[in-house]
Amino acid sequence: MRKSLFTIFLFVVSFSTIFAQQQELSTLLIPNTWQANRLNPAVVPDAKFVIGGPGLYNNLRVNNIVYNDLFGTNELGETALQIDNAIAKLGVQNRILENLDIETLSFGAKLGEIWLTLGHSLRSNAILNYPKTLPQLIWQGNAQFIGQTVSFGPQINMNTYHELSLGFVFEVTQTFTLGGRVKYLSGLNSISSQRNLLQLTTDDDVYQLTLDADYLVNSAGSLRYDGWNELDVAFNFGALTGENLFGKNSGTAFDLGASVQLGKLTLSASALDLGAGIKWKQDVHNYSLNGTYEYVGLDLAQNILEDDQALGSVLDTLREIYNPVETNDPYTTILPQRYYLNAGYQLTDSWHLGALVYYENGEFGLSEPAFAFAANTQIIPQLNIGGTFAYRHEQFSNLGLNLSLQLGPARILVATDNIFTAIRPKESHSANVRLGTSLLFGKTRPAGRGEAIY
């Protein structure tokens, strides 16, 4: 039972890493890219018409532990799990954050003094916030907590949805633009914990085990529960079908942005996903645990102390009584709001400098600011390369690289905010990549005008 529970825990952990704080830092600092419009609706490249092709952005963050903490080499030279070692590295609270955006197709057209933009992407964001006590109880048992009350309820929020956007960019003057975008959200899958109280008390005087629960998990198209032995997780990602594009799970969001050019200096600001939320109505299942259960007995307490399988035996007993209550009530998930403030300076004809500050209203009160500095150089007219140095996730060890290649009207963008992941993947807490393609036709900026950040 113990190992089965830990297998479920590892599945949730690894599953979250397939899919949320976004913290995309490089894109706004790379000159003249169509992808920057996703992060600031007032920013457009030097073109009259744009077709945005397939693109991808992925950002993963696992704090406190890395691959080498969880996997090691045994005496036979084989790769093996070293779970006790990984648990020792955990903090009181631990997080896994992931964001994955798949951009399918987008358009931009300059119509006089106004730009019109259209786009579609498939987005997924996830956050798992769990206490150290959760893997401790599952894997090591509760003997270490005799005489204590420990909380072990995890918080989870995972959403996958289509995003259809319509935006406008207004050129108030030749150097000042305002942008706005409305987004229709069509939900595909969701798992969201709404109440998260799970507490276990092991009394050392009367050998009493008490479990307090007030835990609620909402699911849409993801969880199926028909008994503890019939728990099915089916979080289908990437279902790009027309029938899911305008489903019953829907919501809206808004983006605002502004950009001003002061000679060689450009200042920009944006607020993204304002009012973003999805109302989940289709294929909804709610599972709740609520109440207090006490188990008293000397034999049980002795088994807890002496048998490393005892917690599993206790949970086998408790699961007979603690059957989740299932309902089918609609629920709403709120998506994090994101804010960018950035500046760029065209130092010379070939060198461009940039700086950026980022803030996100994260789920469960977990908000982390980030900032970055960048330098880009135009090697040849067709090739721009650059580097970034960033503070994010409470760490300064984020060195990024980016490349923008122009082949006729075609643009290819490749960037990462953390190159160390590629060099030392088993010692890294994060992984980040941005890929983008676009076709840019025509030019709008006067010859000789200083090329600022965009």
Q: TL;DR of this structure?
A:
This protein has helices at residues 2-18, 67-70, 83-89, 133-140, 298-306, 310-321, 420-423, and strands at 49-52, 55-62, 71-73, 79-81, 93-111, 114-131, 149-151, 155-171, 176-203, 208-220, 223-225, 231-233, 250-262, 265-280, 284-296, 325-327, 331-334, 337-346, 351-361, 370-380, 383-392, 395-407, 410-416, 430-441. The protein has 454 residues and is mostly beta strands.
Describe this structure as you would to a colleague.
With 454 residues, the protein is mostly beta strands. It has one domain: Porin (Beta Barrel). Helix content is 13%, strand content 54%. The protein has 7 helices and 24 strands. The radius of gyration is 25 Å and the shape is globular. The model is unreliable at 1-21, 297-311 and 447-454 (pLDDT under 50). This is DUF5723 domain-containing protein. Residues 41-417 form the DUF5723 domain.
Q: Report the biggest beta sheet as strand number plus sense, adding barrel if it closes.
A: 20 strands, antiparallel
The N- and C-terminal alpha carbons lie at a distance of 57 Å
Number of helices: 7
Number-wise, the strands total 24
Structural class by helix and strand composition: mainly beta
Q: How many domains?
A: 1
Helical content stands at 10-25%
Cα-atom Rg, whole angstroms? 25 Å
User: What is the CATH third-level topology name?
Assistant: Porin
Indicate the CATH architecture.
Beta Barrel
Look at the structure and give the mean pLDDT: 83
Uncertain runs are 1-21, 297-311, 447-454
Shape: globular
Proportion of beta-strand residues: over 45%
Which CATH C-level class is it?
Mainly Beta
Keywords: Signal
Pfam families: DUF5723
InterPro entries: DUF5723
Organism: Flavilitoribacter nigricans (strain ATCC 23147 / DSM 23189 / NBRC 102662 / NCIMB 1420 / SS-2) (Lewinella nigricans)
